Amino acid sequence: MTFTPPTLNGPVNTIIQFKIGANAGKYLIGGSFTSVNGNSAYHHVARLNADGTHDTGFTSPTLNSAVNSAGDPFICGNGDGTAAATTDVRALVEVQTASGSNTAGKIYIGGNFLNASTPAGTDQKMDYLIRVNASGGDANTGFYPTVTGLSTGSVSFGNCVNTIFTGEGTGAGRYLIVGLQGNARVSKRVFDTGAVVSSFAANLPAFEPNVGTGKPVTTGFYCTTAMGCPGNRYVIGGDFANVGGNTKLANLVRLNTDGIVCAHPKHPAVMLLQGLNFSVVDRTRWLNARYRVGLFDVFPI
User: Fold this and answer.
1) Same domain assignment for residues 23 and 121
2) Both 224 and 85 in a single domain?
3) 205 with 88, same domain?
4) Which domain does 288 fall in, by range?
5) Separation CA 87–CA 107 (nearest Å)
6) Highest-confidence range of 79-83, 99-103, 268-272, by mean pLDDT?
7) Do β-strands 240-243 and 207-209 pair in parallel, antiparallel, or remain unpaired?
8) What whole-number distance in Å separates Cα of residue 110 and Cα of residue 220?
9) Tens digit of pLDDT for each residue in 112-156?
10) Residue 11 CA neighbour count, 13 Å, CB half
11) Which of 33, 81, 92, 251 is the most exposed place for a label (fewest CB within 10 A)?
């Protein structure tokens, strides 16, 4: 099959492939582009067919620029000290299993934006992280990125969202792990209502960025025992100099699901490799080929 992408007037930061339902095999892209094939009705988030052509059945949600009351932009850094676009989509997640207010096929969108549209109009509490239907459009009012998960709750995200991945719970997506801009406690664990899991926030150590305000947490995934982890864990990577002051935890760290840094002895697979007649280089190549660095505890702790 040939792949013919549409014309975009800005960069793409994130892309996912749909796994379920009628859209399985299609792609969803997010970035700072403001038009698709010259049509400004499609912006920041767009769906593509399997051959790369634009699927106009997905309606781009309204995302407003991240600026303050004086009109000055909230700067979302690129990690190298440069500023990102004031309206920017950086993370996408497809809900694959229904849970609570989640319906399979819905989409989480994270990035640098304020006051996303809702059926009732612009909503001041829809900042940096929203959930939309499979067809796109207005942000779901069943999900608010606030401390309580309600429209009356106080805002829980103070800066742009760089990455999102689903965690454990009753149904995939019961919990989301969100990686944020800035320093301090740059990850949050939230329910499918948007409410923050306060115990995770309390246990999570501070992440110190390498460059300025940086964007410390940029990627991560949920590792289960079935995948080879000694217990369910979150593996988090990014551009950070230390975690909780520990410089041995630079750029890559594994957390327990309660937010505490996981410090286990090396996985038996690594111990086995060390006992075999492999050179250090060969062992490293084998581990890299497996792409399970976080799973095998080969990063320093």
Assistant:
1) no
2) yes
3) yes
4) 270-301
5) 18
6) 99-103
7) antiparallel
8) 14
9) 888 788 776 667 788 889 999 999 999 998 888 888 888 888 887
10) 9
11) 81
**Helix (H) or strand (E) segment spanning residue 274:** helix 268-275
Do residue 287 and residue 191 come from a single domain?
no
| Gap between the Cα atoms of 238 and 127, Å rounded | 22
CA distance 101 to 65: 28
**Domain identity same for 235 and 274:** no
Closest CA to 166 of 155, 176, 153: 176
Q: Which of 78, 83, 85, 37 is nearest to 60 (CA)?
A: 37
Residue 27: pLDDT band (50, 70, 90) is very high
Name the strands in the sheet holding 175-180, side by side, starting at the edge strand that comes first in the sequence. 161-166, 175-180, 187-191
Q: Residue 50, class by beta-carbon neighbours within 10 Å (0-12 exposed, 13-18 middle, 19+ buried)?
A: middle
Same structural domain, 125 and 154: yes
If asked whether residues 181 and 230 sit together in one domain, one would say: yes
pTM: 0.81
Q: Decide if 270 contacts 297 (C-beta within 8 A).
A: yes
CB 182 within 8 A of CB 157: no
Tally of structural domains, the chain:
3
Cβ-contact 129, 195 below 8 angstroms: no
